[in-house]
Amino acid sequence: MTQYIIDALGVSRAQADALRTGYTIRYGATLLGLTRHHPVDPHDFLKVVHTFDDLPSMLVAERGLAHSIAALPGRKIVLTNGPEAYAQAVLRELGIERLFERVVAIEHMRAGPVWRAKPDRAMLRETLRRAGVPLADAILIEDTRGHLKRYKRLGIRTVWITGFLPARTVLMPAGRGGRPHYVDQRVRSLKSLQMRLRSGQLKRLGRTG
Fold first, then answer.
1. Pick the CATH number of 57-205 from 3.40.50.1000, 3.40.50.450, 3.30.70.120, 3.90.25.10
2. How many helices (H) and strands (E) does the chain have?
């Protein structure tokens, strides 16, 4: 992604890194900043930066992932700031594509010519409306705390999954029980979430959407 910005905008690596991280923080996705402030083709950007010849070797997943996902109750939808082709490729490589009823990728989040991404609130409302899922029934399982914080204000329930995060991110100051106030549950893995559901520890999450 940094190299794409260097090539497209003719900037230094340091400048490209600053744009990449700055736009992600400001808009939720680098793409949104690039399309708003630079003459960048969004489709070309998404294709180039999400094409990997060695994708299988790049993926790391918890053991028994498919079983853990299948055991979770409720409907399951992927919501990703990546493009659909990339998301589908990852799901296929992990052998879990059949476990999700749909993939909502960044191409599906657009409102006319305007690109949107997590954590846009209007986008999530519209996505859930199209899926027929009331906000009160939705549970967002996410490793990005900023997304959880913003979406918690809509009244959905939140699960922060930390097993693959850098230690410095997980150890950031949190609230009671080692989790921020906007996180309903903090888990290391989907397996541990499944075990908590089985033991009844997550009763307060209520229904699942």
1. 3.40.50.1000
2. 11, 5
